């Protein structure tokens, strides 16, 4: 064995021995030792619990996706004929009072037809199996209208292995009317098994950027909390460390012993964090991903993530504890803490400046050549640098401001003098909540921007309408649909038409043909005089020419079965402008013909119907959906009162997690601030006893504690809001979102100030107990 190996083994043995000694002191130091260990364990435990939740979320998403893939039907080869193992399936998804319901009609074609996961047996015609949540809804009074839409008899429930989440609304209904004709993507299709993977597009870069920002906002305060918990100490510990020096231990040994005490608290914190995580995961059904809750069993971090947390947290705790003792002189006669030094400014702006430069470079595409493919990783890193600017600048700002304060009431003077002597503890106590507020402000800007898009994309209540698309349709069939919709309670007006694709002869272009009666034509285009047999050419924009169709031109009306039918645009066709787009942003362009003008049989056209609703009839849209389900269960139904550009995008799951993450972060930092405040009051027991002995009133001391906390909080809030707004604005330049409200941070700041006030009030009982003259006793 070489000298270096012997030295490393001896050093490791010595280090472990000193840490073990400190751990023993932590659990054998009497009531004070146990209290300090409990404080450390509580702070570390909260951080560990949140880290485990964040580590478990990707595993929960993977488990959901695996079950979703398992119930996706398909075949390894094209199935053109029925067989013993084939089955027809048609998607019939719907929506009920804002909740999505996934459904399928099934028709087995052989005795060995596949069975979806979680289903014991395929339902027969007129029967259906449903998820437990859908069964509860159908059995409740709130599901009365839904029962009209799903009149099948419930014969069973779907087990957990066939569901994405515990509150998912899902059903499989039997049908003997399904047939394959492949006109539309929503038509029935033939499968022979379940579990076929389907191409799921990966999240786009915008979603990765926002997800990384959310993780940075949550994880950074967790790190601050663990670092704060590792610094908890006390006078009894100081005396014990001095006694060790008196017995001959060197300064490095005593520091390792002190780190061992923090290590014991961290190890207990791992146990506490694991217990808190087991409690938090029971709330999985209330955490919604894509509008569906999470099974508690899915919230389980991977073994590698759990081991990494279990190893990293104690190591960080030991490192922070050693770093906190760098300015502490442990001597045989006592512990002397270094006098506060004047804080230098020159290096503190470098952290946020580096983050801002990186964000600006990415936002302006200057760094695209160098960071292509890594933007989703660099943006959170830059955000962490910006948020760390709050922690770096706050101590200097507090010291610079309080150094110029003079005079005032006795309570104010006590607080200012305390901050002038040493503002470090007061700044450290609130820096966690300020980092959380800065991150929450940036996240709130993104959330408000996305919510503004969702709000403005749909039509208002007065202009609410339902857009129905089904096929194949004919003019006569569409007119019968219109009459059925007109008889629904809460419907103001109905306009129907059919659309088909036309190819222009001699060109590479194609367009749309819309067939509607004159009443509907006036709704779709700016048509004045109209009679059956007229044809109009609708421009894309007012004042422009129609796509590539001219009067007298022959076009081909596409037909999925025969390839198409020729049709000649009449010479009498008139050019008209379109009407303003409806709540969907949809406007008719191309050929607009009345029914008798089209002699050819447009067999594969789609029927499209717009139903205007009375805003005073909230269930009118559900009655329309019931009528649509009776006509065609697979028809596309879009409610313009709820449609948005964000609702069905990749932002959905992220936007639902952000408020929960912000609330957890604020609760986390509130606990941290409470623990730090109690610890600081314990360290000042002697000073408080002196004030009580000299006759200082409790109100004076209480207000001095309030002002001592208020000054760093107010200064820090200014930094947090400035950095949060800047960070949020720069991140939004990388996404399609825009700032909707520059003052959306006010509730967050108010919440942060309220948390500080509650924590201060919670510390008053401990403060009153410490303001006793008997605290002057010394050994």
Structure description:
51% of the residues lie in helices and 13% in strands. With 779 residues, the protein is an alpha+beta fold. The strands form 4 sheets. Strands 12, 13, 14, 15, 16, 17, 18, 19, 20 and 21 form a 10-stranded mixed sheet that branches. The radius of gyration is 35 Å and the shape is elongated.
Provide the fold topology.
Layout: H1 3-28, H2 30-70, E1 73-74, E2 87-91, E3 94-96, E4 99-108, E5 127-130, H3 132-139, H4 144-149, E6 153-157, E7 170-174, E8 189-191, E9 193-194, H5 205-230, H6 235-246, H7 251-280, H8 303-324, E10 328-331, E11 334-337, H9 350-363, H10 368-371, H11 375-402, H12 410-421, H13 424-457, E12 465-470, H14 475-486, E13 491-504, E14 510-515, H15 518-524, E15 535-538, E16 554-557, E17 565-568, E18 574-576, E19 590-593, E20 606-613, H16 620-631, E21 636-639, H17 651-683, H18 685-693, H19 698-732, H20 746-770
Helix pairs in contact: 1-2, 1-7, 2-5, 2-7, 2-8, 2-17, 5-8, 5-11, 5-13, 5-17, 6-7, 7-8, 9-11, 11-13, 11-19, 12-19, 13-17, 13-19, 13-20, 17-20, 19-20
Defining key terms:
single chain, alpha+beta, ten-stranded mixed β-sheet, seven-stranded mixed β-sheet, 21 strands, 13% strand, elongated
């Amino acid at each position: 064995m070489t000298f270096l190996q012997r030295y490393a083994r001896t050093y490791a043995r010595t280090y472990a021995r000193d840490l073990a000694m400190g751990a023993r002191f932590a659990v054998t130091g009497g009531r004070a030792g146990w209290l300090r260990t409990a404080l450390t364990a509580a702070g570390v435990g909260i951080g560990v619990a949140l880290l485990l939740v964040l580590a478990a979320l990707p595993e929960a998403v993977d488990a959901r996706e695996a079950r979703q893939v398992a119930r996706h039907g398909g075949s390894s080869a094209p199935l053109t004929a029925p067989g013993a193992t084939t089955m027809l399936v048609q998607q019939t998804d719907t929506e009920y009072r804002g909740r999505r319901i996934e459904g399928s009609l099934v028709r087995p074609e052989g005795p060995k037809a596949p069975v979806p996961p979680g289903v014991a047996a395929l339902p027969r015609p007129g029967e259906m199996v449903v998820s437990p949540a859908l069964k509860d809804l159908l059995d409740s009074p709130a599901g009365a209208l839904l029962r009209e839409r799903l009149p099948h008899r419930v014969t069973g429930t779907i087990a957990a292995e066939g569901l994405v989440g515990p509150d998912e609304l899902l059903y499989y209904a039997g049908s003997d009317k399904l047939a394959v004709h492949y006109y539309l993507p929503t038509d029935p299709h033939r499968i022979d098994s379940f579990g076929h993977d389907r191409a799921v597009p990966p999240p786009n870069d915008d979603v990765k950027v926002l997800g990384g920002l959310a993780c940075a906002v949550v994880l950074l305060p967790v790190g601050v909390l663990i670092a704060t918990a590792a610094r908890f100490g006390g006078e009894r510990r100081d005396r014990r460390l001095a006694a060790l020096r008196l017995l001959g231990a060197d300064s490095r040994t005593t520091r390792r012993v002190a780190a061992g005490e923090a290590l014991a608290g961290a190890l207990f914190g791992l146990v506490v964090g694991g217990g808190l995580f087991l409690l938090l995961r029971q709330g999985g059904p209330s955490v919604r991903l894509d509008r569906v809750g999470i099974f508690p069993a899915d919230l389980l971090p991977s073994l590698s993530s759990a081991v990494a947390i279990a190893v990293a947290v104690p190591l960080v705790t030991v490192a922070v504890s050693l770093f906190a003792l760098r300015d502490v002189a442990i001597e045989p006669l006592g512990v002397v803490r270094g006098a506060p030094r004047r804080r230098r400014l020159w290096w503190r702006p470098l952290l946020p400046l580096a983050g801002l430069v990186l964000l600006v470079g990415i936002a302006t595409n200057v760094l695209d050549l160098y960071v292509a493919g890594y933007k989703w990783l660099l943006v959170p890193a830059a955000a962490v640098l910006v948020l760390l600017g709050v922690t770096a600048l706050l101590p200097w700002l507090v010291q610079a401001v309080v150094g110029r304060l003079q005079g005032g009431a006795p309570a104010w003077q006590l607080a200012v003098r305390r901050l002038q002597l040493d503002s470090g503890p007061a700044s450290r106590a609130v820096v966690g909540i300020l980092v959380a507020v800065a991150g929450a402000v940036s996240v709130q800007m993104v959330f408000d921007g996305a919510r503004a898009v969702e709000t403005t994309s749909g039509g208002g209540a007065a202009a609410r309408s339902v857009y129905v698309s089904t096929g194949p349709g004919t003019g006569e069939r569409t007119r019968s649909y219109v009459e059925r919709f007109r008889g629904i309670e809460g419907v103001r007006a109905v306009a129907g038409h059919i659309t088909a694709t036309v190819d222009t002869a001699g060109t590479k272009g194609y367009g749309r043909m819309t067939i509607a009666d004159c009443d509907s034509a006036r709704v779709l285009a700016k048509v004045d005089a109209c009679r059956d047999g007229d044809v109009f050419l609708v421009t894309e924009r007012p004042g422009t020419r129609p796509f590539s169709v001219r009067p007298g031109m022959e076009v081909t009306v596409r037909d999925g079965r025969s390839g198409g039918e020729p049709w000649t645009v009449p010479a009498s066709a008139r050019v008209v402008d379109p009407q303003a787009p409806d709540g969907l942003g949809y406007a008719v362009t191309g050929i607009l013909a009345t029914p008798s003008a089209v002699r050819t049989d447009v067999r594969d056209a789609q029927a499209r119907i717009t139903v205007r609703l009375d805003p005073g009839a909230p269930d009118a849209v559900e009655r329309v959906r019931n009528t649509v389900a009776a006509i065609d269960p697979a028809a596309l139904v879009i409610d313009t009162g709820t449609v948005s550009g964000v609702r069905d995008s990749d932002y959905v799951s992220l936007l639902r997690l952000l408020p929960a993450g912000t609330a957890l972060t604020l609760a986390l930092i509130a606990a941290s601030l409470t623990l730090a405040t109690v610890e600081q009051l314990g360290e000042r027991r002697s000073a408080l006893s002196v004030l009580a002995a000299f006759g200082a009133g409790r109100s004076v001391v209480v207000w001095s504690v309030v002002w001592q906390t208020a000054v760093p909080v107010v200064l820090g809030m200014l930094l947090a809001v400035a950095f949060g707004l800047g960070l949020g604005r720069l991140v939004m330049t990388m996404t399609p979102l825009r700032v909707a409200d520059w003052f959306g941070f006010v509730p967050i700041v108010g919440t942060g100030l309220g948390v500080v006030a509650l924590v201060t009030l919670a510390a008053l009982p401990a403060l009153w107990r410490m303001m006793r003259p008997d605290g002057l006793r010394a050994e």
